[in-house]
Write a structure and sequence with these properties.
By secondary structure, the protein is mostly helical. It contains three helices and two strands; from the N terminus they run H-H-E-E-H. Strands 1-2 form a two-stranded antiparallel ribbon. A hairpin with a 6-residue loop joins strand 1 and strand 2 (56-59). The longest helix has 29 residues, at 12-40.
């Protein structure tokens, strides 16, 4: 892609700026979508069951374990991907 942009007259700095803008936009859109999905599932009750003991542990929503906080968003956008 870089070669195609350079062939039509873009400079190296323009190509780099284009990639940076595109990556920032995609990460912002992805973060907003992830936040929206988390908010939708914030009122869902989940649980995990054991076949051996036939017991179940539930985590009703909303609960502190399910809330998305500002610190969560900060860590999401600042932590490096593995």
């Amino acid at each position: 892609m870089t070669g195609a942009l350079r062939a039509i007259g873009f400079t190296g700095g323009d190509v780099m700026a284009s990639f940076i803008r595109e990556s920032l936009l995609l990460s912002l859109i992805g973060g907003c979508l992830r936040y929206a999905v988390a908010c939708l599932f914030n009122s869902v009750e989940t649980g995990i069951g054991s076949i051996v003991t036939f017991s179940e542990i539930t985590c009703p929503r909303p609960s502190p374990c399910a809330r998305v906080t500002t610190a969560d968003l900060y860590l999401e956008f600042t932590s490096p991907e593995l």
